[in-house]
Amino acid sequence: MRVGELSRRTGVPVPTIKYYVREGLLPAGELSSPNQARYDGSHVRRLRLVRALVEVGGLSVAAVRDVLEAVGDPGRPVHEVLGAAHDRIAPRAVGPDDAAREAARRQAAELIARRGWRVEEGNPAVRSLADALAAFNRLGHERFSEAALDAYAGAVERIAAADMAYVARKAAREDLVESVVVGTVLGDAVLTSLRRLAQVDASARAHGRDRPAAGE
Amino acid sequence: MRVGELSRRTGVPVPTIKYYVREGLLPAGELSSPNQARYDGSHVRRLRLVRALVEVGGLSVAAVRDVLEAVGDPGRPVHEVLGAAHDRIAPRAVGPDDAAREAARRQAAELIARRGWRVEEGNPAVRSLADALAAFNRLGHERFSEAALDAYAGAVERIAAADMAYVARKAAREDLVESVVVGTVLGDAVLTSLRRLAQVDASARAHGRDRPAAGE
To answer: What is the domain count for chain B?
Structure first.
């Protein structure tokens, strides 16, 4: 298909497609004449993946390029690709190395030990967890870890089990890796949206209303 | 305290503090002489809140300003402030209005009905949920909703209950609203980090390893 058809099928404007090709996010089409390229189903799929990572996942173009390079490199273990993806998704915290951060590191390590999770200390998610807990601590929410963290942990164990069951049926490595990356990025978006809805519901129940008031 | 002390206590560089004052994120200090301002504990706290929203939550300066305005307006109901915060956190999806989105809207509405959640159709989280599900659908993961969505929903119900229990002890409105905003933004960061760790653990167990290999 020509670029116009590719644009029509994916909803991505032609100039954006050309930009992605220049930036290495999308392989160039096959030249059918000096100034006309042809695209196929693999371009449609790749373009949808790029858009999902950018629009739903909120990744930058540079982050998407890194993640796609990792996905496409058969020499890299799946957990490394996942680490690269997560590194690109998690905002980099640069808060001070203070008592709040020290306490947060301990809270994270204790939680991991308590749950018996098999993760290395150097995993980037351990750092982002400690960063988030440190921010809670600095704002006077030191009790959050003690009060709510195990409920969160129990909940994500159920989610991880569902994730594993979902990707288990993928046989080919590239499909598997892509599923994991998509599941990670889009799954986060699903999870945070659902959390908001469950909060609204819990709040409505706590205030004893049968249904939300009009206009809410 | 002077601006240098404020910087030392929060780890935020002086030029950044001045930028936040110019942008309206931080009230100006009280002028003690024509070119010297004094700051107090309320500035420390506000600055920590701004940094948490920017660094951990990944919000833009404009988004933080909107959220803080909503928090500070006593006339706005809590759920509206939360909606404003969520609107600013969720990336705006602009995917095509295709069959995948239509299916996603239906999947989201059916889930909400199935769980008996009391949320209005117009809630921004319903839209972001449908956006994320539409992206899954477009990438050939139509089965995700059916296979994993109820496990996710069950998990967030537990999380929302923990959130409610945590904020219930806040009496003053401003404290309550701030807790909800902080809990929403930082709680998302905690949740996605934990999800990653639980995935790593589930993957290690599935591959039958007693502990992660060195360097992993």
So the answer is: 2
List chain A residues with CB under 8 Å of B98.
11
Interface check for B195 against chain A (CB to CB < 8 A): the answer is: yes
Residues of A in contact with B207 (CB under 8 A): none
If asked whether residues A51 and A146 sit together in one domain, one would say no
Q: What 3 state SS string does A68-137 have?
A: HHHHHCCCCCHHHHHHHHHHHHCCCCCCCCCHHHHHHHHHHHHHHHHHCCCCCCCCHHHHHHHHHHHHHH
Residues B94 and B161 reside in one and the same domain: yes
Tell me the mean pLDDT in the region A7-35: 92
pTM above 0.95, yes or no: no
Domain range for residue B49?
3-56
Query: Using CB atoms and an 8 Å cut-off, which of residues 69-88 of chain A contact chain B?
Result: 78-79, 82, 86
Same domain, A93 and A8: no
Confidence of residue A207 (pLDDT cuts 50, 70, 90): low
* Same domain flag for A119 and A199: yes
The answer to whether A115 and A157 have CB atoms below 8 angstroms apart is yes
pLDDT, one tens digit per residue, over B119-149 is 877 777 888 888 889 888 888 888 888 888 9
